[in-house]
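sorry for the late reply, my laptop died twice this morning and i had to redo everyting from scratch. anyway the thing you sent over, i finally got around to it. pasting the sequence first so we're on the same page, its 212 residues, then the predicted structure underneath. double check i copied it right bc i was rushing
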Amino acid sequence: MSLCRIIVLLVLVPFTTQARDIDLPDVSLAAETSTAEAPVPKVGNFQTFVGRVGTVDCQRWEVTATDAQGFLVSTCGKYTTYLSLVGSYNLNRVEGPEGQPLVVFEPYFPAVEFPLAVRKVWKSKYEGYLAAEGLRWEGETTCRVVEFSPVTVKAGTFDAFRIECYDHRRAGMLETGANSTVWYAPSVPGVVKTVNHEDPRWDSELADYGPR
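ok and here's the structure:
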């Protein structure tokens, strides 16, 4: 299996941002009963993306280790990501060339929660840090699996769970929000597309992965 990338893209946006109305399609019985369990990524598996990954301009990420602290470790050039093993492989942090934290979520950013199933809803709190802007905040994210249907990206067409999330954040007296959509494809397995509806600079999609 390839790297399970659960990297959610963060930028504080104006406080007027509200949760989007979610498109709720008619769901077939087959789609409604589809589920996805947590994957078991292996060292050497990789994913390549179009767009930045976790604020980093580096596209090919390869699984390098599962460490004793409970993280799946992946690298791209001089950058390293740590995904929480107990947290559905969601992002805990991204480190730079000298090991400095670039993005941190404690305990992790809750973009995916296994097992996945249509109509599943979850809500979770976290604390965030974005080094590029010197920002620290408290967040609460609510996500819902809307449908299981095909999605086409650079790497091909995959049956995927479409997950709609609203992230409410508080930094001091300022409250903000951000909407995002994530597509998770069990056959990869991993997130194959991410759309940030407030800031398209954070959009990304899968271009290649392996081994197939």
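The radius of gyration is 16 Å.
thats about all i looked at so far, will dig more tmrw
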